[in-house]
Design a protein that fits this description.
heterodimer, A: eight-stranded mixed beta sheet, seven-stranded mixed beta sheet, 11 helices, 18 strands, globular, B: 57 residues, alpha+beta, two-stranded antiparallel ribbon, two-stranded antiparallel sheet, 2 helices, 18% helix, Fe-S_Ferredoxin (chain B), repeat (chain B)
Chain lengths: 406, 57
């Protein structure tokens, strides 16, 4: 560890590792720190990801792919099933990852690109001079250090502190967070080519239960409920109920918990000498809870803008504005749209959900696009989904592109 | 007022840290640290997926 770097990236998840890799590839002096002693572990994720979007960042590797997914089966509270499968080009559209290996592979790529990586190294505060972030205070193996940099990247996830230290309020309200629990189970006995989703205010109030195939008859069985719905019945209790009723033969081999921000975009993700990326910037999708691809996309943008800003000698908020503009114009638009969908769906009764599912029974879906699903729902239930009409106006203009993301 | 985290129950996921309005919590390795900014508001207790937090009143 040196006393000074061009950029310091706090957090070695997908957002941080891609930022570090992008910047290091362009010749910047990069320090990537991870507070845990093991990158990628414990996971806090359902591990589903769209194939196309992932390939924009890394070549798929069987070492971190557990299952190829070609479709989704969505169940309404009364058991009505809507199936969506990709038939175009005969292919699987998504992967279920092994995040422990995937995250490590991404960190490895940043190291290969020249970034210095340190584990068991926790940011404890920012160094702020005037109103500019000039580095971080960190703790490694019980010793405290100060390390300076031109830009600090906060990729410190759901529990991000970096933004708060710079005066950006990233605290999430209970009604803006999905509180989640998941088991990796053996004896899952599901079709390993499909992801399963169960909706309903009994099974998962203002959220859903998911089953994602993990290969070898295993699956991630998880639940996310809105934090404001948590209390007497918690995520873990509802998950246990579901398992008992629906998967009595399944055997739990791992437990996973976590919170997913579903607040929609926050006001600001940059400051003088600072950029926030991924969950730290609350860039996860409010309807699916998916965050991996958005984190990687944002990481790439952050890395590229950091390179430019340092070359131009302007790492002020103004010099970093391009990052803010870039992500809001892409990821941000999708998040805004998803937020409208989320706010509509969390208010639905079980009867509403059943009637929506029934209205789709004769629709033949050949794509996994969430937007296609919503469009079909809207066509059949204009009154119920009137709030969403704005989304489809944009579709016509090809303004937005809802991708398959989990 | 502060909170009590049952470290035997905690899944060290950091959901509580993300919702804390005062930034009083920190996830370090496998435990949650609480500092004196904690007001005992109970938001963390509400959202904990495992029910590992209690407000100490």
């Amino acid at each position: 560890m040196k006393n000074e770097y061009d950029i310091i990236v706090v957090g070695a998840g997908p957002a941080g590792s891609i930022t570090a890799k992008t910047a290091a590839e362009k010749g910047l002096d990069v320090l990537l720190i991870e507070k845990r002693q093991e990158i990628g572990d414990p996971i806090r994720c359902a591990e589903g990801v769209g194939k196309y979007n992932l390939q924009q960042h890394i070549e798929p590797d069987p070492r971190w792919i557990c299952a190829d997914v070609k479709g989704s089966r969505i169940f309404s509270p009364d058991g009505t099933m809507v199936e969506m499968a990709e038939e175009i080009s005969g292919g699987e559209v998504g992967y279920v990852l092994e995040r422990k290996i995937f995250d490590r592979a991404l960190a490895n790529e940043s190291a290969l690109a020249g970034a210095e990586v340190m584990v068991k190294t926790r940011a404890t505060d920012l160094i702020i001079e005037g109103n500019t972030v000039c580095g971080i205070k960190l703790m490694h193996m019980g010793e405290e250090y100060e390390v300076r940099s031109k830009i600090v990247i906060g990729a410190d996830g759901m529990e991000s502190k970096v933004g708060r230290w710079a005066g950006i309020n990233t605290s999430v309200k209970p009604e803006d967070m999905e509180t989640c629990a998941q088991y990796l189970v053996a004896n899952a006995n599901i079709d390993q080519e499909f992801c399963y989703f169960y909706l309903g205010n009994e099974v998962a109030p203002a959220g859903y239960i998911w089953l994602f195939p993990k290969g070898g008859n295993k699956a991630n069985v998880g639940i996310g409920i809105l934090g404001s719905e948590s209390g007497e019945q918690r995520a873990i209790d509802l998950l246990n109920d579901f398992m008992e009723k629906n998967m009595p033969e399944a055997r739990i081999i791992e437990m996973v918990v976590g919170g997913v921000p579903v607040s929609g975009t926050i006001d600001r993700t940059i400051a003088n000498g600072l950029i926030l990326v991924g969950d730290a910037a609350r860039q996860s999708d409010p309807i699916t809870g998916g965050g991996i691809i958005n984190a990687m996309d944002a990481g790439k943008m952050a890395g590229e803008v950091a390179v430019k800003a340092i070359r131009n000698g302007d790492c002020s908020e103004k010099g970093l504005q391009e990052y803010e503009d870039l992500w809001r114009d892409t990821i941000g638009k999708e998040i805004d749209n998803s937020l409208v969908v989320k706010e509509t769906f969390v208010n639905f009764t079980d009867e509403d959900l059943n009637s929506l599912a029934k209205s789709l029974q004769n629709v033949n879906f050949t794509s996994m696009s969430l937007m296609d699903l919503l469009l079909a729902l809207f066509k059949a239930n204009k009154k119920l989904l009137w709030n969403l009409r704005g989304l489809f106006k944009d579709i016509v203009k090809n303004d937005i592109d809802f991708k398959y993301r989990t | 007022m502060s909170i009590i985290v049952n470290k035997y129950k905690c899944g060290y996921c950091g959901a509580c840290v993300g919702v804390c309005p005062t930034g009083a919590l920190e996830l370090i390795e496998t435990w949650i640290e609480v500092d004196n900014k904690c007001t005992g508001c109970g938001i963390c207790q509400k959202v904990c997926p495992l029910g590992a937090i209690e407000v100490d009143r």
